[in-house]
Amino acid sequence: MTRTQDHPAVLAAALGVAILLTLLPLPGWLEPLRPYWVALVLIYWSMEVPDPVKLGTAFLIGLLLDLLTASLMGLHAFSLVVLVYLARRFRARMRFFPPWQQAMAVLALLVNDRIILLWAITLLGEPMPTWRYWLAPLVGMALWPWVFLALDHARLARRQLDRR
Amino acid sequence: MPIDSAAVTANPGQGRPSVTALMVYLLLAGLLMLLDQRGQFIPRFRAFAEGLVTPVYRVAEAPVEAVRGIRRYGRSWDSLVAQTREQREQLMAQSGQMQRLAALEEENRRLRALLDATAGRDIEFRFAELVQVSLDPYSHQVLIDRGVDDGVFEGQAVIDGQGVMGQVEGVTGGQSRVRLISDPDHALPVQILRTGQRTVAMGTGDVGRLSLPNLPEQSDVREGDVLVTSGLGERFPAGFPVAEVSRVVRDTGEAFMDVDARPLAALDRGREVLLVMSVPAPPDVRDMPATEIPDEALADAVDEAGTGNDASSGDATAAEAAEGPVLDDPAAEPAESSEQPADPPNDVAPVEGGETP
Fold first, then answer.
1. Domain boundaries, chain B
2. H/E element holding B125?
3. Measured on CA atoms in the order A158, A162, B1, B3, is the torsion positive or negative?
4. pLDDT tops 50 at residue B136
5. N or C: which end of chain B has fewer CB within 10 A?
6. To which CATH superfamily is domain B117-288 assigned?
7. Which ipTM score applies to this complex?
8. Which of A24, A72, A84 sits opposite B36 (nearest CB)?
9. For residue A148, what pLDDT is reported?
10. CB pairs A-B closer than 8 Å
11. Residues of chain A above pLDDT 90, percent
């Protein structure tokens, strides 16, 4: 079954790039459009990879993200655990959706994540975010096919490297 | 893709995760959030772990630095010349103001000495730049490129060219995390510059708005009033500008006014900051009981002010200059120039202190 095993280095590299994109400073007007990069990578890794990411891994990645972005400790951990759980729960169905439907499913996951974040924001006593707050999931959906292709490509390249 | 491919059906790893595991992790995450907001343990852990992830910031910053380097290289000669001229003009204007300030400071110091007030110590600043990474917009924190190695300490005040930004919360070797005054949990003791009234400016989570929830209904506050640090709380030195009152709503039914202020510092778009290296004791003359001010000293002070006016008024300069000794004899002064505010000491004291010796 070596054929179906994916090297963890591919996931690590993808997450590394996603984290760097998360930390990349953007001009103010672009800031609300920043997609949840790490979530996109983890959705892919829950859906397409034979050995999907575990909840514990998602939790630890979330903690790392909390540490790096100085957000409330546990916030990203919470959101990523929910995300990975849902993606794996509906994995069998999402895998065989046509692309546009799959993109809609990703949008639903990301919007759900925004709702969880909204709940945390209100608990923290922050003011209600504006409508721009809901743009990030749309951008995430638009980027989904490209993330999908890029990660497919990366996995394939890595497997060919292993076979050689 | 065939539906019964080995990748889909035969791998044990693709089973649905158990709801129990989900609940355990969610509880754990929830607990962490609670601890982080309320307790001391998580911030301590964060301070430790931050040192480990600092290299990630260096990598994340690299592309931004590269772009900036290229842009700097590509800047045209004309724009550089224009910029230099602009900066020179700015420098001239500011050094003019500085000269005036130096005179004022000298006068202030003399007055303080006369009043036996605590001398305001000199405040040292250290320049720091923001680390160009984007943190969680809801964290109200920024990273700066100075750490323990540069003498940064926890609780240190951070300002920019316009006003107070925040205070250092976490320090690692070469970087520190600064909590901005816009954080909903941040409270800053301030003073209304015009009236001297003290209050507290609370963050609201909005970088463009602070709120002053503790001003009683009858307080004298107007839109445009400048708030400065009061020096209470001993984190921030007194007298730094913080914000400008942007909205005052008086509701006679309430005990407190609804007052908002706009921070003067560029909280969300600054690039360079100053670290305040030493915090002097709050020097506040307003607070000194007037009865303790020696009459002699007060009279001298008024005298000096009087002579200052004198010199600037053009009509009688020569005459006054000839009568040098008049300074030493306060009683003689009123006879010479009736418009001077210099009065004998016994007349001044009751006005200022309400109590005669």
1. 117-288, 290-311+326-353
2. strand B125-129
3. negative
4. yes
5. N
6. Rod shape-determining protein MreC, domain 1 (2.40.10.340)
7. 0.85
8. A72
9. 92
10. 142
11. 53
